Structures are given as C-alpha cells and as structure tokens.
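[09:14] KT: can someone run the structure on this one? pasting the chain below
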Amino acid sequence: MTITTYQTIAQPVQAEFKDKGSRFIAFAYPIFSSEDVKTYVDALRQEHHKARHWCFAWRLGVDGNQFRANDDGEPSGSAGRPILGQIDSFELTDVLVVVVRYFGGTLLGVPGLINAYKSATAMAFQAAEIVQKNIEKTVYLRCDYSSLNEALRLAKLHQANVVQQDLQLDCRLTVRVPLANVQAALTAWQQTRQIDVSEERFDAA
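[09:31] RB: done, structure tokens below
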C-alpha cells in the first residue's frame, strides 16, 4: 500500500526538563531542507551562548533516509540518538529538535543524560500541534492562454497547488499534486488536448 501522507509539527515549540540543577530546553521546528538545520542551530548558539551543549537531531522526507543525530560533546549516543528516537516514536518527519543544556554542576551519567534529552524532546512534542500533510508530486503543465482557466480549474478540483506560473508566449505551470490524486489529475489534464503534461520541466525554448 502506497503511503500518501506524513506527520510533522505545525509550528515551532519548546519545553524544558530539569535534573540535578541542569536545564534541558528542547526547541522543535518544522523544516523543509537540511539547510534549515544550520540556521536554527546557529541562532540558538547565539541566543543561548552561555549554555554548555546544543545537541540536535532531525529527519526529513517520507522515506526516512535523511536524518542526523549530533551529541555536541556529550558522551556518544547520550543526546542526539535519544532525540532522534523521540522523533521516530512520535512518527514525525520534516522536523528538527535542538536541546540546549545549561550544566547544573552535577554529572548525570549516560543513563541520566539519555533520560533528560529524551524527556525534553517528548515534552516538546506533547506541547506541539501535530499535523498530517499530503505527500505531493510535482508536475509541469504547458498550454495556451485560452486553456489556462481549464488547467487551473482541474488543478483546484484535484487539490493541487500551483507553485509557479510562467506566463509568456504560452502558459507554463509548476503544480504540486497530492500523491493520492496524481493519476486522476494527470488523466484529466491529458484528456484536455490543449494542455501538455510532463513530470519533467519543459524546455525554455
């Protein structure tokens, strides 16, 4: 059975866990690319410059192949992995969690650290609005101006989003279609002979 939806968080959220004087502040963000990770981590390093560690984990995409866990100086496997484990436990993707640690003067040991990073992350997700989104496929349409309204009508009918319009000698549209509706949408466009449909971008010529 083809997976057509995925879960992520609707907006950034944070939560705090404390243990023996140490503070673990979890910041969870919805992300769209790995470039977003550096932006958020760097911003937190500046904002919380007196903290001891900025540990994080992220996962992108519905196939589960894009992910990373970073312990940022904590004992190996004691921070990034527990954070990633909670991302997976809540069945989320397209999400980043950074846990900022302020050291309280007492060592927690590896089991204590695993519990702290896991708990802070879980608390953030419990406070988050978790949303289900459609997996989408990008297709490209080309038509003349007389067929543009029909191309747009069929896009709306199949819950597709037009993300780019290039209106010059002819009309070229970049459209993202929910995976569950792709075949029906392609068939509808193809039956309108004045509309060309492709899974590859049309040449500029």
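[09:33] KT: thanks! The longest strand covers residues 22-30.
[09:34] RB: yep, looked fine to me
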